[in-house]
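Why predict the complex rather than its parts? Because the way molecules touch one another can change local conformation, and only a joint prediction can capture that. The input here totals 510 residues.
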Amino acid sequence: MNRSVKTHLLAVSCLLLFVAIPVNSQKLKLTWSKQFAQPVLWYVRTSPGILLVQVGKSLIAVDEADGRQLWMFPVVEPSGKSLGGLDAAADRGRNIVEVPGMGVLLLNRVKLPGDSDGRLIAVNLMTGKRLWDAPQVDDLMTAVPLYESGQAILVLRRLEKKAFVKEMIITGSVRLPMLLYPYRFEFERLDLVTGKPQWNAEYERTFMPGTATVKALGDHLFVYYGNQVLGCVDLTNGKVLWADGSKLFGTGSLALPLEMANGKLIYGSKNVQAIDPITQKADWGIYDLGKITGIFLHDGLAVALGEKSIAAVDTTSGTER
Amino acid sequence: MHSLERSTGKPLLDAKLHTDSFPNHIRLASPDVVVTIAVTEVCAYNFKTGKKLFTTGKLAAFFRSAAFLDNWPMPEDGAELVRMTQMPSGDAEWAGVRKGTLLSPDALKSFEDSSAETEAFLDAYETDAEGSERKVWWINPQTNRQVEITPSGAHHDVDRRLGMVFSLNGKLMLGTRIESDEKPPTAVQ
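Output of the joint prediction:
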């Protein structure tokens, strides 16, 4: 076969390899439209099929299916500037948290008519009824639902003002990028519907912005930062049971999952480890994976992916399959 | 791209990724198709054959079928790939939800149904290719074909379970229904 024929065949093969699958275009039919008095700043979907729409200073709940307005707060004043706030668009979803399935919406750093200072307000997502409120917090990062008890752990981030000022002095800049602010976590366990607090506690470690996960597994709350630093908090009283991992700057890498199987916490650090969540005693590990990129559990099997290799072990014994 | 048998580790496929940049996320988009997401492009592969199906522009937004407001900070276009808040799981947690929820019975039923549909492949993607308009698409799990829509306005969101697409045009908000004209796959005799 001569060279030009070979080249031609190769080109055809490549074409066949990359030929696009047929695209099926679908039509859209207008079902509803809603004209607001001012431009819409942002909107988000929520778990019961309700759209939350920010229009000027108003917060409006709209039914996804028919565009019907369900409730409205005519004036929701922001109270102070959020940490890391860059522009108006970045405020979408910031300091607003929904507890999925519970119908509770939490609005932080807001003032409704009649409020003299910034509040953290819980609202019935279906009706817009104000359930309870408390003084605002620096930043409401998320709420960890404790579905069995109807409670949640509010995860708050508090700016470390002294460390922040020190950094500004060291860098000689008053225009330090806001995204580099140091912060500490504060946790508050409360009843979602009444707001009655059970405990609150500060996690005594300073973090910088980066990938952070806070997850409740069993009787413990785990703080997992930068896919390396891990801490364990007792869910009954907020006390830190242990903390592991050295101080590090944040990473933008996607967060690795924290999993629990057979009463053992399974997580990635330099290796994948299964530990006792109370004593921190290691039960088994998966080593030499390279940088860990994924972990998942299925049917008694823990599968760990790294940049060098992939391994699957029995979650009970750690024995490689 | 590698696929292997979960229980034994037996390799099923080793295929070369034909991509300009290394993917940082991979999602199952149908029983046969995975979507790889890199900074500059989104690609789809049949992971049973290794065949690349298409390449499209960079990810602008990702729309989950079961959405809730949980990400901090939420990206402007909503391309949240990793969830922060845990959904209920197990009988005891679901019993707690049913006991304590403020949702109406219909809304709760809808939430439970959507939570159970994790294998239904009802997510959608919005990609932005240079020089062309943004497009919203997904993979039909029955045909493994790309399905595309081009909604008007800006700041789209998609609820495939409800079959609705939302968009903004200044003061106007639009809710449009996806009109399915896909033919079911013809049975092979």
